Structures are given as C-alpha cells and as structure tokens.
Fold these 2 entries.
Entry 1:
Amino acid sequence: MHADVIVQAQHVQPLTDEPTAPADSVAVTGGRIVAVGRAADLAPLRGPDTAVHVFPGATILPGLVDVHAHPVWGSISIGSGVDLRGADSLDEICARLGKAAAGQETDDWILGYDLNVNAFDGDPSGDFLADRFPGTPVSLMTADAHALVISPRAVEVCGLTGAETFTDASSVEVGPDGRPTGYVVELQAMDLVFAHHPEIPVPTAAGYVRAELERLAAAGLTGLHALDFTDPSEDVYRHLEEHGELPLRIRCSPLVPADSAPEVWEEIARLQGRRGRRWHVEGAKFMLDGTADNGTAWFDHPDIHGENREPLWRDVEAYRAAVHFFTERGIPTATHAIGDQAVRFALDVIEEAGPAGRAPHRIEHIESLPDDLLDRFAELGVVAGLQPVHGTRHTRADATDNWSRRLGPDRAARGWRTRDLLDHGAVVALGSDWPIGPGDPRVALADCQLRRPVEEPGKAPVQPEQAVTAREAYLGMTVAAAYTAGTAHESGRVAPGFRADLTVFAADPLDLAPQDQPGNAVLATVVDGVVQCRP
C-alpha cells in the first residue's frame, strides 16, 4: 500500500534517549505514521498519488503542544483590545489608550489587556483614567488576567459600590473614602464588568480566533490545551469548522467555578466528549487560589501586606468533594495552584481521590514550591504544569517586582522550580498560559533554558539554577504533553502507529544555542497528516 504523504528532511529528531536508527523521512497514511526511516528505505511506499514534501537541511520533530493556553478569550481580548504589553508607566498606558480612543464616541468602551501592575506606585487604581478619558468607560485586564483596572465612568456604568459580596475571593476594592477605586479582583467580580463589555458577534470572534491560531501554528504548535470552555468557545470552534479547518488540535477543560454546587459539576461532566474534528472536551479545571500579584494566592503564611493567605474556594471541602466527583467518573482534573499551601492541599486531595482514568491529574502554575513537596509529584503521578515564562517575564532577578516584594526572598527563591521537579522524577509539561505568556513556543522554550527573556541578553536570569536543557525543554511540549493528555500511546513521538502531528524546523533546536531558537524557522506543521507549509 502506498503512503498518502511522505515528509522528507535531513533529520528526524526523536528527542528521547531510546536508541533509534537514523532517519530523515516519515510516511503517513490515514493521518497515522506508517514508517520512519531513510528516504531510500521508504521509496516502496511512494506511489503516483503520494504527496511528497521535501525540506532540505531541516529537522522533523514531534508536533509541539502548549499544555496551558486560553485561545478563545485570549484571541477576543487581542482582537478587541489595546495591547499594553511593555507599557511600564501610566503615561505610556494613557498614550496607547488615546490612540484607540481617537475617532470613537465618548461613551464607547475602551478595552485593554496585559496591564503591568508595576506601573502603579502602590495599589492599582483607575483614577488616573478620569482626567484623560472623562466620561469614557475603560476596562484594562492585568497581565495575570486575574484583575481589572477600570475607569470611574466604568465603575458608574457597572453600578459598582464596593459593597458587593462574592462566594469566592473576589473583591471590588475601595479607597479610604469607601468608594470603589476601580481595582476589581478575581473572576466573580470581573464578571460584573464583563457583563457590560460590548458583545462580540460569533463570526467576528471566530475571525479573531482564526487569526491567532494561525499565528500559533506558524510558530510550530500542532496542538494546545485550552484550560477553559466558556462562552462563546463552542460556538466559535463550530463556526471555524463550518468554514474551514482548525490549524491545530485543541483539548478543552471547562472551569469548575469556585464554591460551585454539584449541579454545576454534573453539567461539566455532561460536556465530556463533546467534540468537533480537531477539538474536544476532556478534563475539568479548578482554580484553588488566585494570583500572588493581587494577593489572592494561598500561601502558608501571609505576604508583606497580610494577603496571599486564603484559597479562592472559600469552602475547601467543596473543592475536595468536587475533585472526588470528577475522579470517580474518570475525568482528570487540572488545578490552578500558585501558593505553597494551595499546592500542598491539592496534592493531598488528589492522593485521597486516586487516579482518574486514562489521563493523570495535574497541578498548574506552582509558582513557589517548598522542598518537602518536590517528591510528591512523582510519587502520586501528578503532572507539574509549569509556565516558566511567567517567572522570566513577570519577575526580576533583583526582586524589585511586585511578585517578589510581596512574597519575600525565601519564597521568591523557590519560584518555577523546573530543574528541581525534573530531578525529583516529576513529569513537567510546559505551557505558556497564552495570552498571559508569549504564545510562540520557541520563545517559551528558550526562556526555560535561559531563565530570562530570550530577547533581552542584558537582563539577569531569575533563579538560573532552575534552567533546563534544550532536550528537556522540548520534551516538555512533546512527550510530556502527550502523557498529560493520556495519549502517550499515540502522540508525542515520531514512530509508526502514532498520530502524524509533526513540526518541521529549519535546524535541529537541540543543536542551537537557546538565544538562536526563536529564529529557527518553522517550515511546516503537520496535523493528522495534513501538511501546512509555513512561509
């Protein structure tokens, strides 16, 4: 039988240390790899209808998978908002917003994303927007996506008083006068503002998502794990598949809201298995705590402001019950746990609940981890889902950033322990938390090796002892990603019988210095055996 497709390069990079024969070609039939070897050895599989793609000098790797991303709301935020990345002063923020406001009506919303809280001298507040944008509702999402800074007019439009109460750790912050400052923290409070944002039609939202997914695929991704499934996710995915094909695979894990009732858990359980051609729902996402930057992470002792001491789930026994609920139904869980106490509690609950089925439980972020928890990930088979780009891009080696100042030197020194977790036998799966982190996997993987932003050679590394090798980094988005999804038997490797999901690089990234990896051209991605050549 002849192959449907043959992809030929200079080298097939297996990534693993297992002995394999040298290979430069991959043959694919029906979306599966049927042979890997030298071009001459695969010649009998080449028929008159076989599509042959030749990439001289290139390297074929297993397709890269980002295990933590937010493709729908991230794309909509980018498509409809002002990019505040790199705006480190209130003047620069206002200048960027001013360009967006030009030509629009005064009462039209201005939305922004990636707001740097270090731009404020003290607690974030929307008061600085009053003089520049009087009468205009402005809503800016912070870089960690766990808070909003909104203008006085937005406070008025949303009817916020500061007296609002929530079942989770959300808050509408107030000043000494008891009036809202415009700092709106965590999801339930943010939802009060989102309800007043302009509605984005599904075709428009789908256009935003299509554009961003194409950019991510062009950077080398063949898949990602969407750790959410909120509206309009399903409508967007279905719209895209009605009008074409997703450029990569998407595994969606819906969020279980903090302190939600069993009726909500039942609804999420019913979503399991819902799918399209390249997207499906699997798993449940929990947020056990918030973020250290806004004081809502759960540590074993408070930060310098007396915050970061409580879980997002006010009733932690409800979290325990929910994890058991999904585990008993064979549904794997992913728990957002940033603080040391949140990580400890999540591990304890997972140990009680036991394995969920084909895919392992996972804990996400793990921003500050004490020594006594390092061994437990391997012991319990829990995946450590890390985004080291948060450490390289949201903190500073001199500890002058908000995260480090709040937590103090001891806890800051235990940040994003990629090296230590690997050395203690944990499976470390790497993600970006896009759009909170850079979506280009080459950038994220270079940062993992350098422990600083790859494009800033003069910047001191953050916890450089936690750096990993190129091989370890790329394993985190291939073999480890497949294990995390419970598909290690059919993805994450270039081998017969496996899915034909491949990334073709101009050069072998394992032969490159970390600083050269972002410039390593992606010549093609292959999903289900479909080759998409990249310019």
Entry 2:
Amino acid sequence: MWKSATRFLRIVTTVLRYRLDTFIPIHLLPWYLKYTVGALLSIGRKKAERNRGERLRLALESLGPIFVKFGQILSTRRDLLPDDIADQLARLQDRVPAFPGDVACKIIEKELGANVEDIFQEFDRTPLASASIAQVHTATLKSGESVVVKVIRPNIEKTIRQDIKLLYMLAHFVAKASADGRRLRPVEVVQDYEYTILDELDLAKEAANTGLLQRNFTDSDLLYVPQIYWDYSRRNVMVMERISGIPVADIPALRRQNVNMKVLAERGVEIFFTQVFSHSFFHADMHPGNIFVDPSNPERPKYIAIDCAIMGSLDEADKNYLARNLLAFFKRDYRMVAELHVESGWVPKGTPVHAFESAIRSVCEPMFAKPLKEISFGQVLLGLFQTARRFNMEVQPQLVLLEKTLLNIEGLGRQLYPDLDLWVTAKPFLERWMNEQVGPRRLFDEVKKQAPDWAAHLPQIPNLVFSTMTHLSQQEARMREQTEAMDHLRKEMRRSRRNMPFKLLGLLAMGAAWITTDNIALAHLAEADILSLALFLGGIYLLVLKP
C-alpha cells in the first residue's frame, strides 16, 4: 500500500511538474471548482501553454511503460488530436530515452552465458531504437548475418507491477461507484491488460509468437515476418533478422518510392482480417513503430511486421459472432445486430429488440456511403457508448485487444489513404469467410481434421459395437422382467379388490358377534351413531370396493 501511495504521489507530481493541468478546460468546471481548484491551476497557465505536446510526451515518458503505451495508442488517432500533440506522441513509438549500452551488454552476457565478443562479430552499443519495454541494438553474427538484438529494460517489471496495482485500485473504485462502472467491467479489463503487458516482458514468448506469425504468412505477398535466431534468444534477450524497409508512418518516403497508397491501405485491412478470421492469431500492437513497408514492388507493396509481444486470438464462437455482426452492419440489418447482441448475452434477455435496433440505427447509419476521412469515429464511439449505457450492454474483456487493434488499423488507414472505405474493403472478405464456414469446404476440412482420430479408433469399433449390443440386450431383458413384475402386481391388486366385499362382511360379522357378546343392542345406539356408521361403510365402498 505504501509503494502504491508513493507511485500515486509521483503521478500527481509529474502532472503538476509538466503542467498537464492545462489540458483541463477550467471554464467548463462547476462554479465551486472553478473558483477554488481552477483558480490555483490557472497560475502560470499562460506561460505553460507553449509546447503542450512536448510536455505531455515527457510526462508519459517519465511515468513509465504503461503510460508510454497509452501515448502510443493516442498517437495513431490524429482525427482526435491536434497536430502538435500527435506529432510529439508519435515520437513515443521508438524514441523513448535509452538505457546505457554497457548495461545492455551485461544483460546479454548474463542471459546467453558468454561474452558479447564471443557471440557477435560486431555489436553496436548505441541502440538503434528504444521503446517502452525494451531497446534494440544492431549486430553481426560470427556467421556474417546482420541481426538486431532486443534487450528488456532493467528493473522494468517492478515499475509495471506498481502501476498495475494502481490500475486495480482505480478499477475496483470505478466498479463500486456506479452501475455504469460495473457494466464496463474495469477489473476484468485490467486483468486482461496485466496478462498482456507482463507477456511483453518475456522475449522467449515474443520469439514464439513471431515464429507462428511467420509460418502463417509463409510464401505470402502480403506480410513478411523476420527470422528468429533461437540459439540466441532467451527471456530478456532476443536476436532476429535485420529487415530493411520504410516506416509505414513515413508517408513522404513512401510517395517518393511511388507506392500505391490505396493498395497499401487495402492490404493492411486484408492482413488484419486474415489474421483474425483465418488464423485466429493476430498482431495486437500494430502502431506505426512496429510496421514497415517493402517498396520493391510499389504497385503491390508488402508489409513487414516486428514486435510480436502482444498477440490476440478469438475462439470459434467469438469469430462467428463477430463476423455475423459485422456483416449485419455492412448490410444495415440493425434488427439482426440487436438480436445477435441479445442472443450472445451482451445485453439482458429482456431487452426490447425493436428499441435497441432503433438506437443502433441512429448511431451507425451515418457511417455508410462515406469515405473514411468524412467519418467521425470519435462521435460514433460516443454514440455507441451512450447506447450501451441505455441498454446495459457490458464490455467484453476478450475483445478488448481486438477493439484496440481495430482502432490502430483505422488510424493507420487514415494516414495512408484517407479515402479508403474500410467497410467496402472488409465486406467481401467476411462474406467469403462465412461461406467457408457452412459450405462443402468446411465439411471437407472438418473431415480431414477428424480423420486421424477416426483412424485411431477404427480397430476398437467391433468391440464397441459388441459391447453396446450386449448392454442393450441386457437392458431389454431387465425391462421385460420389470414389465412381468408390474403385470403380476396389477393382477394381485385386482384379486384383492374382488375379495374385499367378503373380507368386509366377515369383519362386520365379527363386530356384530362382539357387540352381542357384550350385550350391546344395536337398537340402543343413538341416531347420530347409526348415521356415522353408515357414512363410514359408504366411504369404504367408494374408496375400496367401487372400481
């Protein structure tokens, strides 16, 4: 708790040090805050107005990797940010202050168990790039191959865990504060983010992710993934092939190479949907610092992806649901969208579908038949959030990475080709994927997938058939025995009911003899007693003797 309080104090100090309070519109505050807190914050505000983007960038850098990641995501949303802020945040992609090269060498030697000079023919101690979690050095292997060496920042895990504790405190507070907070499921979102960012600290996992992504796009002309050198990769060190390409955000350089920007943007969308729906494994950190372009064929430019630390995946149910939703959106079938939300449990079962449909239509209809540059996705997201509040729609933590990646794709597409119609580009792919899920090819693939298991169990089939037939025969014999027992019981009950009048008469005769023996004459009985006896005998007849 003390460490969390210290970290919180540092965050507040950093906000004040870099005058991030200048981003707060004092004139919009309630009067009691405007003339108290607002008056204090306004001191020196005019002087602090200069270089606001630089102050924000420096504050995020000083607060550590979680805040740098936040800045990286914001840097892709130039539609939501002024140019001066977006330009400064773009520097967070690969120009975070580096740690000394000598420290990097010590980490490499500790991980690989050998001196740097014994591993590499050449090693540049000045980093090529420095990011929030790690930094990269260029090197040459003894075999002469040009590589890059990625090294995790020292003591970074301690800072990350402190920040995550603060995020959990904030998440629990938001969850308990209101129904809206519970609906957003902030604790689950933080848990998902914790799992993701801690995975970034393990370069062995990143190497494995890179290898899988590379296999998925083997011989593809859409995406190239660098080769991993497994003998030199550990938890805190990873060595991979050095690539040559143009950073995707360097628009002037791409234009100088006559790259077809429309095709480049469309191929980016195709790569994303291929990863999500065909491979169920997608790069979930697609900010411009991780993407390069091979311009050797400018009419069909090829992407190059690095930094596979954060990867996402969807199960079959999520993919099917997502595809059906997107296709319904593309067809403007808002009734289907509403029904799918209810069916999936994202909104309560009692939600009025017609009202939900109308609300979705009002938010999404303006998006269609417009190029990307004319669509305000900020307003669309705001409208969807308001719809969610109205119908108690919950945030789905398993889709947080996908939503984040979609935002990155949209921001990248806006920079590359503002006239790109994202919906028109994606719709044919989704329709083709859905047809594959229900067509003959899907059946063939499923048979092919199950064939080895069927072949393995084939020798056991005769024994299974014999065992099943024996079990059925025994069960049939038991059922016959039970039927015969029930028939016998019914016969005994019918025989008992036929003999009941004689048994009753015998009982009455015994009673009469007993009464006579005790000198009690029936004539001496009161009328009420006689009536009671008659009712008693009549009840016995109705319940026992009458069939």
